[in-house]
Amino acid sequence: MNQSSAKGSGGRRSLWSQARELSQLAPPERNRWVDFLRALSILAVVFGHWLVAAPYIDEAGAVQGGHLLGILPWSQWLTWGFQVMPIFFLVGGYSNGVSWSARLRKAEPGQKGVYRDWFASRVQRLITPVFPVLLLWAALAFAMTMAGMDRDNVKMATQLALVPVWFLAVYLLVTAITPLSLKLWKKFGWLSFLGLVLGAWAIDYLTLLQNVPYVNFANFLFVWVGIHQLGYAWQDGRIGGGVAVMLLAVGLAALVWLTVFGPYPIAMIGVPGAEITNSMPPTIALLALGVTQTGLVLTLEPWGRKLLDNLALWTATVLMNGMIMTVYLWHLTAFVLVMVLAWLAGGIGLEMYPGTAEWWWTRPIWIAVYILALLPMIAVFARAERVFGPIRGGRTVPKLRVVLGVLAICIGLAMTAAISIASPEGLTGVRLWVVALPFVGAALMGFGPVYVWFKREPAEAA
């Protein structure tokens, strides 16, 4: 959706009035359900994280990093509703298919660098909001280390706050192969999806039954590209009412068979102490959940699109999509801030053991506090989703630089989530190479995060 810089008195308009104006400019052919599902999926993940993370103070007065799914096994069923990253990848397939097809239509015959420019622009819009949170936590990790804090605690706080960046590394790789995956869909249709399902099943077979090490990481592509492929089917009009209901039924049956009667855990995210995780790396069970959720949300699509004809609801959707990556990237920072303040205040609210009646009744209060802590972060950092610097002054970025750049970004983000930017040794207490990789990747791809942040006039945003 297009948005431009507010000038003069327009700069003083409320965010709601700006979103309302943008919502009224949306073309009538736009599928508003896509935007709604994008916002819904991220918000579900945010509230799921706030609910699952359950630190408390034990009888000895020590803070324990409680995990609700480990404390209350029945709560693992809740992840079937809160683990909605598959919906984000479904929406990503729809959006990337539309965007890439439009870019091809606009390209002149024989024009070079079409893919490189398209992909560099997509990367820039996704990675720019990461830079502020990454820099802040690098500075905090350094400051906490210099203050003499236990390095394990520094690592725990830093890793908890930054773990959401894992999905960006995967999503960038999935987006990178959009031209290939879309071409496969156009040529083979549903067979292109079935091939990925069989590939995910084969990886799980090698992992669980043959004990082949490391091969399970291939499912980051098989599973997520498979769900991304369903987005093409949706955009192509191949998932109508009957097909959507069939996907819902088949996906749910497979999910129950794999988890209730099969070897896979009920939880769709990692549970402390569990031998198998459905998300890191993903399994065929998570793919079954993705098919189930696809069938559900597309069965509801006609009702949802009619509902979004309501201007207030559509404006709220536009407003949320304008800050959605900021909400996602900063929500655990807000959580850590609240926990630290509660601890400094004598452990107020942390004396309740997770899962008790008292703990459940106080969840709405805690979530309200998390939202209040998040609001200033949105106010300061959401602009990173709306301002973009030029990519090499409009010149095409060389192919090798694009490849090296995206690899550096993805490796940096993956390491941030996997091993943390906090270092157990060294003078600074920070893994500087991990922090630097996304910035190096951005520079290689031709856009500078510092320039972007201080740029006053927002460029056109998708």
Please specify the SSE layout and strand pairing.
Elements lengths: L14 H11 L6 H21 L3 E2 L5 E2 L3 H4 L7 H4 L2 H22 L7 H14 L2 H17 L4 H12 L3 H11 L1 H11 L1 H19 L10 H17 L5 H19 L24 H16 L1 H7 L3 H11 L2 H21 L12 H5 L1 H19 L17 H20 L13 H14 L3 H6 L8
Instruction: Kindly give the count of domains.
Output: 1
**Order of SSEs:** HHEEHHHHHHHHHHHHHHHHHHHH
Share of residues in strands: under 5%
Helix content: 55-70%
Taking pLDDT < 50 over at least 5 consecutive residues as the criterion, the unreliable ranges are 1-12, 388-394, 450-462
Based on secondary structure, the structural category is mainly alpha
Largest sheet: 2 strands, antiparallel
- Which value, in Å, is the CA radius of gyration? 22 Å
- What is the distance, rounded to the nearest whole angstrom, between the alpha carbons of the first and last residues? 5 Å
Mean pLDDT: 87
For the largest sheet, list the strands in their spatial order.
1-2
- Tell me the number of helical segments per DSSP (H or I, 4 or more residues long): 22
Q: Strand tally, please? A: 2
Shape by Cα distribution: globular
Labels describing this entry:
462 residues; single chain; 2 strands; mainly alpha
Précis, in short:
With 462 residues, the chain is an all-alpha fold. The protein contains 22 helices and two strands. It has one domain (30-454).
